Give the backbone structure.
Amino acid sequence: MSNHRDRKPPAGQGAAIASLVAVVACALAGDALARQSPPGPAVAEPELAARVAAIAERIRSAEPTLVRDLPPEVKIAQWRNR
Amino acid sequence: MAAGIDAGVDIATARLRLLVLQPTPFCNIDCSYCYLANRGSAERMSLATLDLACRRVFESAFLGRELEVAWHGGEPLTVPLAWYEEATALIAARRPASVRLTHAFQTNGLLVDDNWARFFARTGARLGLSIDGPADLHDANRRTRRGRGTHAGAMRAVRLLQDQGVAFHVITVLTDRALDEPERLFDFYVRHGIGEVGFNIEEIEGANTASSLAGGNEAKYRDFIRRFFALVWQAPGVLKVREFESALGYLLSEEPVRDEQNEPFAIVSVSHDGAISTFSPELLGAHHPRFGDFAFGHVAEHGLADVAAGAPFLAVSREIHRGVDACRRNCRYFRWCGGGAAANKLFETGRFDTTETMHCRLTRQVVLDEVIAGMEAHMRPANMRPAYAGPA
């Protein structure tokens, strides 16, 4: 297995730097809220939309500019070979 | 939508984003899961046909400000580089000044050499290499017609492109054999400096009438996605995975997702002989008893507006629209899916106006489920997190 377990995005990794997953992972890792107020389906399984809304809200609180800055193409599903 | 809501095209809002050009149906290898029935044909697109295709596309009211031209075979690099030099010059000459155009190639890499690498760098083309992971996984399915593995040749292309500084991503087709080994796949990409990967599934499509992922292997696929997401999350920025990027983008988007495969003229496909199609690119070259070969027109005779008014297109468009509408009414994932890939509905169920497929369960539902669950797990306080499925 690889030993890449550092939570900071590595420098000089080209395309991988622009990863939305990486940005969110790092934002949440540094989000004080993530250590204070648990969201999510701790008691009962909420509806899918409610779970998604909770995730989006938590990410917004950690990285307010992220949702607004999403590139438009992310809204369109990709053809499998692009 | 304006007139013809259940079948036609709203010229005011339709936007052509992807032009798929098939320079040849020929492929120099013979993958076991390939959907193309005519991959042994060595026919090629003529520059005259390409010129007509350019005229049809660039004169169309569907054209937006950005267009990606995807060269997709067969294996596109079996057509000589000199042809692409002329082809890209021709497209550049025909392109309206207001349109930003990018080229993309999807290749098995076997024919990549220094000249191709320089061409990709000079044209700024997006390049995708088809590599199914380590040699045993890759060579199990991606073989020559004589049965020889192609992994060594594909990895030679990886090294050559990296040496030349040409960016590329990898597309990996997941078959059942790969599902037990997410850690090994992750390690493969990292070890070879591959920073971006997209997972395709072995689809039931065209000439490939069965998938090793069908039936009981769907649970294994879910486990694979869960474990791979954990690997990616725990090493942010090391590997960009198309499926996770898309899913997270959809979850954060304030707009419902729309799938360009079921939106008329968002994608236009032109075959080597000039046949025009739209919706899923895989339709062109397939055959269906009710819809024929999905050639809705020909560049020598039809503009895209003619195609949009023709009976073959309208019959398909109506049925696709009914299928998307059924998804909208019945599927809780619709907001983040957009109604699924038209080709997969047809090839799995025989119709476009159906809803759930193996393809949508695996590539949409499972991925969304596992990204959501993974996010939730990581958003809990450390002392409340479940034993998340990532490796220690």
